[in-house]
Amino acid sequence: MAMNPKDKNLLRGLAIMLALCLGVLWVGLKIFGDALRFVGALTSTYGAGRAAISFHKAFIKQAVDPKKFGSWAIVTGCTGGLGQEFVHRIAARGMNLVLISRSKAKLDALAAEVKSQHGVEAAVLAFDFARCSAEEEAVFYGQALPAFVAAAPVEGNVGLLVNNVGVGDEAPFAVEEITIADVADMVKVNCGAIVNMSRAILPLLKHRKGGAVINVSSGSCAQPSPYLATYASTKAFDLHFSKSCAREYAEFGVAVLGIRPYYIAGTGLYPSNKPSLNAPAAKAVVEGAFAHLGKYEISHAYWMHGVLGFLFGTLFEDPIAGAIIARLATRAGVNGTMLHIQKQARERSKAKKAESWTPVDTASAEHLKRLGCKA
After folding, report:
1. Are 91 and 99 within 8 A, CB to CB?
2. pLDDT (tens digit, 9 = 90+) per residue, 31-48?
3. Whole-model pTM?
4. Residue 99 to residue 148: CA distance in whole angstroms
5. pLDDT, tens digit, for every residue of 60-103?
6. Residue 322's CB: how many other CB atoms inside 10 A?
7. Topology (CATH level 3) of domain 66-305
8. Residues 175, 229: contact at Cβ < 8 Å?
9. Where are the domains of the chain?
């Protein structure tokens, strides 16, 4: 098989890495005398290095203050839930706001509230991220949004973009139960909006030599999430996009952070408005995001969600530890896997809103007929 220049460069790189590893092994054996002592020392040094880096990020490195890059912040999907809390926390920091969401009436009400409570400016721009045609998207992202940001009162003085807008499942649905329209909405809003908003605003932050972007994802993508597969996958896109953008724009002074919170009280996505250890108030997540801005590329933004992310995304997914934990949890009568958690959530949803599941079951039965399956 013939090799092209790229193949040769790849082999050359692998040869250099192999030589380096063998060199380290040779020196280590010379110093420590035997392989076990060398492996122990290497493991300890690596662990200490990881711990030192984590300590530096958590307690020494300073978070980025977006206000020093511009006096205006842009927040999408801001008239309720976490987005609304971002608006108030940003305004409390003394930044003016560009509010972008679907309802002009709700935007106007929020703008008046922000001005009254925090004494900052708030400009509104209504846009339906889901119910828009390709032509309307091109006009909004390519013309209307840039013109709005360039004009008074903003005049390009933007230091922060918060991509919060998103849509999700009404209940834990199987992939086959999601409607075509819901699939289109989730891809269009959860994936398309974050890319197009970033594409529109990042050049401005790059030109101003600094700024920050916070992309709101979901804890559902910290691990495989059965019965939330479509939603969680679109949110995983947001995190990968955030990490890639963080590295692409770091040299221009732009900090990009993707946050992936689990449940948050009082946002409508969690049954209780009362904060708890598992579901904190939205303020805790927003303040956590600002505390981690410029320190990390990805964050849960709330310490307990970080613990849950480790349990569900790392420990429970381990082929050995996960299997042991799942079996012990089942015997103890608690959930040991995300599959069990989501199955129970489906049962609760069907018991509480049985009428809303009837169209889903009917649609599934009709589709089976179209596939040639007999009842």
Report:
1. no
2. 877 778 878 888 888 899
3. 0.91
4. 11
5. 999 999 999 999 999 999 999 999 999 999 999 999 999 999 99
6. 17
7. Rossmann fold (3.40.50)
8. yes
9. 66-305, 316-370
